[in-house]
């Protein structure tokens, strides 16, 4: 191992050797004024210029701007028509399917009839009472009062006598019918009933029918005669008194006219009838499944003859006129340079012509991780084009950077 003294001696020798080999430098006593020895300076290397980037490139796939529309009937009814198939293009307002609407039409007709009745009642109740209406109401009250007073007095001798006359007349008619029957059937008055045989003669049978009818009339007349001798029951008196009260109230209403409260009640009933008609029309409209947009049919889940249920989607529609591109691998390193409204150029693998568009939205929630970088989704709204664009098509997007 070389000692420290030996290393110092060796370094000094190297220095003197290099000095002897170099050019002679004149000293202060050799014709040159005394000056410091010049020292060389380092020149910095040229810095390479970095051009700022103008675009960001990412992968993406086409997706629907709006979710699929699942249409279903709001009523439980039998399907009578299905007018579309899968893949068919439909216009807004086009009827896709129909169910049996017979019950719904009946409900609408009943609601309209109730509305017409309510309107008539409102007009009648709000119209001022005329003199004929007042006279009729007074006559009805007078008649009901007289009937009630007669019932309170009990049966009159005249009514009893009239009922007795009716009964006697019915008995005489019965006797006459029996005599005519005996003549037509060949019976005698002294012949026992058990021995009387009815021949197949039409006149005899007709006479027997007359006797049966006369017996029934005599029985009714007798019961009326019995009732005419009885005092009125409490039920009959109560009903007669109720008739008097109703007639008096009707006359008072006509004389006083319509109150504000009655008008409000009538208007409320009329409004309820109108609401019922609107509801019935809305339910009838639900018997037809109508397309809300210019769409393409994706699924048809009903057939004629089946029962449509509100919980089961009948037809699924897709809006293919508003498709956007969603990026799939844009990292957090690039998302800060993307601006809403920035121009974008889209190259799809299935379409030869590049498509143009603009940044529509930047979703704030990360969609995943690529390596150590988080991924974010940028939505590109495409400009109108005549190319066939379908959800799921993939390609590349080039987004302009300011």
Fold and architecture overview:
The protein is of the alpha+beta class. The chain has 4 domains: 55-66 and 319-400, Efflux pump adaptor protein, beta barrel domain (Elongation Factor Tu (Ef-tu), domain 3, Beta Barrel), CATH 2.40.30; 69-99 and 286-318, RNA polymerase II/Efflux pump adaptor protein, barrel-sandwich hybrid domain (OB fold (Dihydrolipoamide Acetyltransferase, E2P), Beta Barrel); 106-127 and 261-285; 131-260, no CATH class. Helix content is 44%, strand content 20%. It contains 8 helices and 17 strands. It has helices at residues 4-21, 102-126, 131-153, 157-185, 202-228, 234-256, 260-285, 332-335; strands at residues 55-64, 69-71, 77-82, 89-90, 95-99, 288-290, 295-300, 307-308, 315-318, 323-327, 330-331, 343-348, 355-362, 368-370, 373-376, 378-382, 394-400. The strands form 4 sheets. The protein has a 6-stranded antiparallel β-barrel. It has a 4-stranded antiparallel sheet with strand order 2-9-7-4, with no helix packed on it. A 4-stranded antiparallel sheet has the order 6-5-3-8, with no helix packed on it. Strand 12 and strand 13 form a beta hairpin. Helix 2 (102-126) runs antiparallel to helix 7 (260-285), helix 3 packs antiparallel against helix 6 and helix 4 packs antiparallel against helix 5 (202-228). The longest helix has 29 residues, at 157-185. The protein is elongated and about 165 Å long.
């Amino acid at each position: 191992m070389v000692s420290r003294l030996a290393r110092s001696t060796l370094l000094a020798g190297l220095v003197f050797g290099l000095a002897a080999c170099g050019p002679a430098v004149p000293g202060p006593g050799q014709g040159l004024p005394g000056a410091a020895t010049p020292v060389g300076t380092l020149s910095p290397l040229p810095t390479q210029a970095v051009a700022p980037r103008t675009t960001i490139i990412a992968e993406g796939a086409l997706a629907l701007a709006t979710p699929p529309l699942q249409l279903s009937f709001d009523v439980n009814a039998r399907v009578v028509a299905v007018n579309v198939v899968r893949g068919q293009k439909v216009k807004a307002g086009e009827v896709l399917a129909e169910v049996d609407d017979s019950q719904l039409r009946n409900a609408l007709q009943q609601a309209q009839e109730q509305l017409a009745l309510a309107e008539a009642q409102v007009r009648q109740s709000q119209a001022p009472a005329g003199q004929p209406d007042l006279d009729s109401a007074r006559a009805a009250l007078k008649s009901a009062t007289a009937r009630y007073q007669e019932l309170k007095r009990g049966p009159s001798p005249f009514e009893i006598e009239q009922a007795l006359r009716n009964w006697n007349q019915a008995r005489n008619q019965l006797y006459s019918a029996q005599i005519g029957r005996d003549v037509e059937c060949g019976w005698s008055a002294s012949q026992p009933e058990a021995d009387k045989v009815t021949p197949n003669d039409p006149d005899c049978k007709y006479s027997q029918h007359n006797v049966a009818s006369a017996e029934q009339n005599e029985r009714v007349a007798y019961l009326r005669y019995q009732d005419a001798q009885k005092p009125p029951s409490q039920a009959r008196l109560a009903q007669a008194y109720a008739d008097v009260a109703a007639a008096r109230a009707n006359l008072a209403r006509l004389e006083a006219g319509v109150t504000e409260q009655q008008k409000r009640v009538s208007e409320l009933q009329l409004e309820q009838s109108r609401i019922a008609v609107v509801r019935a029309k809305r339910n009838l409209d639900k018997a037809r499944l109508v397309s809300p947009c210019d769409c393409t049919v994706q699924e048809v889940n009903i057939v004629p003859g089946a029962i449509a249920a509100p919980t089961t989607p009948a037809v699924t529609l897709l809006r293919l006129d508003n498709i956007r591109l969603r990026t799939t691998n844009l990292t957090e390193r690039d998302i800060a340079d993307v601006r809403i409204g920035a121009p974008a150029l889209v190259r799809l693998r299935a379409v030869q012509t590049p498509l143009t568009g603009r940044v529509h939205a930047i979703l704030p929630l990360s969609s995943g991780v690529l390596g150590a970088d988080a991924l974010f989704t940028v939505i590109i709204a495409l400009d109108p084009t005549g190319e066939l664009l379908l959800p799921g098509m993939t390609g590349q997007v080039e987004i302009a950077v300011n």
